[in-house]
Automatic annotation (TrEMBL):
This is DUF1349 domain-containing protein. SUPFAM superfamilies: Concanavalin A-like lectins/glucanases. InterPro entries: ConA-like_dom_sf, DUF1349. Pfam families: DUF1349.
Length: 202
């Protein structure tokens, strides 16, 4: 049976804290400053995104499920928020919502030396005729399997019930910290994000 790790003020630490960095209690609301980003390519090395992570690492062989539910008024190119699996500035995974090409995308970036990026339209997660709710809420979960080469399955949902696969990757048999992040890479006034919950089960 899975047990939950507490995600609270005493068990987490901010990496690149925002000016109004709150303690981890829910709903957790803060202003994402600009320009901030989490991105690593041969020409760009960015590790300035506000990221709230568990203090304790999760061992390489320990399976876990990280789930979060959040919303924000995304409006500027690359505004983003979601979950984070973090080992170092060059080894991490993030998944959530990102504003790109004048619409919201459900986005995943896997970085292991360099970043790669995949997106799907947010609207593709809605049922036929369904309209997005205020704040464009999204649930995202990442599941690391046991004994399968560091297999991680990432899924997303607009209601916490109907889940769709957004990424399936390997090589995550690493000691990692887990949590949440947001970023506003394009120069702007930034945006306020609200995380309704974060669950870590091992």
């Amino acid at each position: 049976m899975l047990s939950s790790l507490p995600f609270s003020a005493t068990t987490t630490t901010w990496h690149n804290p925002p000016a109004d960095a709150p303690a981890a209690s829910f709903p957790l609301r803060y202003h994402t400053p600009s320009p901030t980003d989490l991105w690593y390519t041969p020409t760009e090395h960015r590790d300035s995104a506000p990221t709230l992570l568990l203090n304790d690492t999760i061992a390489p062989t320990t399976p876990f499920t990280l789930t979060t539910h959040f919303r924000a008024p995304y409006k500027t190119l690359y505004d983003q928020a979601g979950l984070a699996i973090y080992q170092s500035p060059t080894v991490w995974l993030k998944a959530g919502v990102e504003f790109f090409d004048n619409e919201l995308k459900v986005s995943t970036v896997v970085t292991n030396g360099f970043s790669d990026w995949s997106v799907q339209p947010y609207t593709s997660f809605l049922a036929p005729g369904e309209q997005p709710k205020e704040g464009f809420p999204l649930w995202v979960r990442a599941v690391r399997k046991q004994g399968k080469g560091g297999e991680v399955v990432v899924e997303a949902s607009v209601d916490g019930q109907r889940w769709k696969l957004i990424r399936h990757c390997f090589g995550w048999d690493k000691e990692v910290r887990v949590g949440i992040m947001s970023a506003a890479p394009t120069k702007s006034e930034g945006f306020e994000v609200t995380f309704e919950e974060v669950r870590v089960e091992v």
